[in-house]
Amino acid sequence: MIYLKKLSLFFIILGLQFAANAQVKLPALVGNNMVLQQNAKVNLWGWAAPNEKINITLGWQSTPVEITANVDGNWKTTVETPSGSEKSFEITIEASNKIILKNILIGEVWICSGQSNMYFPVGKEDGTWKTGVKNYEEEIQNANFPSIRLFTVLTKASQKPLDDVTGSWKQCSPQSIKTFSAVAYFFGRDLYQKLNVPIGLISSSWGGTKAEAWTAQSVLESNPDFLSILEDDAKNEKLYQEKLETYYVDLKKERIANNNDLSKTEVKKPKKEDNKTSYVLYNAMLHPLINYTMKGVIWYQGESNAETAFLYRSLFPAMIKNWRSDWNQGDFPFYFVQIAPHKGQNPDIREAQLIASKTVSNTGMAVTTDVGNETNIHPIDKQTVGHRLALIARAKTYGENKLEYSGPTYNHLKVKKDKIQLFFDDVDSGFKKPSEDLKEFEIAGDDQIFYSATAKIEGKTIVVSSSKVKKPIAVRFAWKAVPQPNLFNSENLPASPFRTDDWEVGVQKK
Questions:
Q1: Is 404 left (phi over 0), alpha (psi -120 to 50) or beta?
Q2: Rounded distance, CA 235 to CA 241, Å?
Q3: Cα dihedral sign, 177-179-180-181
Q4: DSSP code at position 233
Q5: Lowest mean pLDDT among 19-33, 257-271, 429-443, 470-484
Q6: Torsion, Cα of 310, 314, 319, 322 (10° steps)
Q7: DSSP letter, residue 286
Q8: How far is 365 from 480, CA to CA, in rounded Å?
Q9: Phi, psi at residue 290, to the nearest 5°?
Q10: Phi, psi of 505 (to 5 degrees)
Q11: From CA 425, how far away is CA 473, in angstroms rounded?
Q12: Is residue 137 within 8 Å of residue 163, measured between CB atoms?
């Protein structure tokens, strides 16, 4: 009898534990304060008991949604959203338990990713490279935009694709904006003020990371050009393991010599930066996001790929294609920042980004040659960067047809005896008249030696010449690590650095 009672109690406890484990659960992205993409079919998803029935009530429609989890306990459904507005909604998700999501807005959602210049927060963090943006105290004080919602993905690396991230949606306020991505915030603030609909910003970025870390393993393995990247990863892992082996050997010797006195330990364990390896950030910080319906992506990265800029010409487009394939939303907008002047950078990475802007569909590039810093790779004027990204989105995504969103972009040239005439796109209203002579132009003949050149505006073209080059064939503009060009269109947007030749440069050999 006692045995039967204990057995019954065991099954009751087991049943209660199963019921607790079987409750419907949601990913971090599907939570209070979130913004759902307007006028779209958006995904809601999560986990439950195998074959469990789930009822979803949406605050903007009268008909509930009924679905059933699959045999593995996974569930996903697509629901239609109305036009964006300031009105908030609730979503109730009910199975063996009930979850009520509150303060949900409908508007525009953007993914904001990259390395440290995207991660760079609005506020200052003493003792770190996070120095705060220009006028950060004023910007923080004025950040009262409850209809702008912020989600920061906690930095994490993984060898395998994950299903969830760590983070939560927050309303934009002086408290929440301090640690949020500055470029993302200024981009979103500009959109909010122009579109008058809620804005959802998902910041998923990590300093010092390469594009291959944000690209799927299958994509890297499928392209022969990228196998060298994976080979280098394997070599680095092998080297780390060798250092780790040496560390434990030395530690053992030290412990024996010191009679296991831990206070006398001087051997240092080798440091491993998990975020430096290929595909690990895609797995941990991007893959969990792909169910979340969004409008587009803004991207600020490239510094860590500067030494392999020629490879970046193919890697960066492959990464964009990878993301678009995973989201299955067509060629969604992908707008990015061209690397700013800095002593540690090179013009080749800017060229790789320029090529992407011209060859990859539905992309746009914000030029930043006028807001860089020779000695600080994290320039503090993030307002200009965010604004220029927003200009691209407003013109290309939201249909402001008469809005100029790009600075002058080189198109083609004509040789006229001892001069070269350059033709540009995005100068419909002409060039801005500079206060001094145009700078950063160079010209060369067939000897491929470049000389500083005189450049003059003639209508919507630039004519370049040098007394040292009688038969010119090529021009370069702002082709150095830290250029200081002064070529703008009449809308005060800077021209992208460029070259008219395709002669081999140093980083192509790497």
A1: beta
A2: 10
A3: positive
A4: H
A5: 19-33
A6: -170
A7: I
A8: 19
A9: -70, -15
A10: -120, 170
A11: 21
A12: no
Sign of the four-CA dihedral 225, 157, 341, 299: positive
Query: Which amino acid is located at 253 in the chain?
Result: K
Question: What integer pLDDT is reported at residue 13 of this predicted model?
Answer: 47
* Amino acid (one-letter) located at 167: G
Cα–Cα distance for residue pair 125/207, rounded to 1 Å: 15
Span of 15-19, 88-92, 266-270 with lowest mean pLDDT: 15-19
> Alpha carbon 203 to chain centroid distance?
8
**Buried-exposed string 385-406: b where 16+ CB fall within 10 A, e elsewhere:** bbbbbbbbbbbbbeeeeeebbb
CA 171, distance to chain mean position in Å, is: 21
Paired tokens of 68: 């059933």
Amino acid letter, residue 359: T
Q: Which residue in this structure is represented by tokens 């964009």?
A: 320
First to last CA, the chain: 79
Q: What is the CA radius of gyration of the chain?
A: 27
How does DSSP classify residue 404? -
d(CA 260, CA 274): 30
Map residue 455 onto helix, strand or coil. Answer: strand
Q: Find where tokens 């991660």 sit.
A: 119
Nearest residue to 212 (alpha-carbon basis) of 90, 325, 322, 59: 322
